[in-house]
Amino acid sequence: MSNKLSERILSYQAAADLRLLPRIPLVIVINGRSFSKLTSLLDKPYSSGFAECIMSTMLRLCTDVEGAMFAYQHNDEIVVIARNDQSTESLPWFENRVQKISSITASIATLHFNKCATAIELNLMSEPMFACQTFVVPNIVEAINTLVCKQQNNFHTSIQSACFYELLKKYDKNTIKEMLNGLSIDERIDLLRQECGVDFNQYPMSFRRGSACYRIPKVTEDGKMKNKWFVNAELPIFTKDTSFLSNLFKHDGIDIFRQENL
Asked: Per the count of CB atoms within 10 A, which of 54, 85, 96, 155 is most buried?
């Protein structure tokens, strides 16, 4: 009876052990839990201390997630693109088991961000925690499109955030909501300049475009060339410089569909 009971309980567990299709790009999205409240005491709309911690967390994820080749960060979100198609022997990280990947990745982000925030005495309302969602996309083109979409969302969010927090120095929340209602992106940028004397382009580029982490070749002390993780806080606009992402993804993988002209 004991063995039958054990098998039955394990069958319940196995039914929820979803495994994603291997040999196609894996996308891991990590988000801060209730970070708007958590960061309410920080400088808004941009905090250099918070940016330091979230970029450091992105770098840590890239070094810990097996098969990671690129990560993009904006606000409290980090998107990691991982591959397992570089050779016929490449195996998925944790067999592409969604619960395993999500729980471990969220734990890595939470622990590292907390460590970094404590080290620089970041003024947070409570202890940070991260949630995670894991999925696959059918090919590398859609992995690139995911990053394009994320950067476009960040652009809209950063303008909204800049307008709200700068106007909050002069108006109440209801007035600001009425002022911004129905305005286009360009109109919001103009409103920010006219009402607050703030040029949106003067904010750090990482706030406006996000930041990224990927490997670049570097010369080691012994004169050898080695790929090292690099955090780029001055990204191009992906839709304007289409070669930036395509060149980074282009030469990895051996049997995945690619679109040469993005």
From this structure: 54
